[in-house]
Specification:
The protein is mostly helical. Helix content is about 50%, strand content about 10%.
Length: about 150
Amino acid sequence: MDTVALLNTVRADRSGVHDDLADVAPRWRALRDAARVLAAERTDDPRPVAEGHEGRVAQAVATLNATAALAPGWPTLVDGRVVWASAVAAEDRALADAAAEAVRFFASEVELRACLAPGCVLYFVKEHHRQAWCSVGCGNRERAARHYARHR
């Protein structure tokens, strides 16, 4: 089951698991922060939002690895298809699956870039040699900012 389907399952059926997701949210934030530190390191992000990431890379890798190890699973055969089973709560499985995807992503050779448009804090995978921003909206904001700077 992919991570999105698992998250939808968790949202739809919360019986027997955490009654309040408040204790899960900090772990998701820690995973997000670790991924942002690794993305900033990989892209040499010059933006102010990424300042100070150099000293936190080792901790980010440790957080990512520890989170990915939260929900060890095993394949099971159900009606002729493989389903991953685990002995942990669905929230932990979803968190561990997201961390595992991040591990695979940061180990890949994709060209990750920081979007340098004004006000944007996102990263994107460069899919075309001329792609410079994460979205059309960011490109438009960048061009508008250049225009206004020239005509002031």
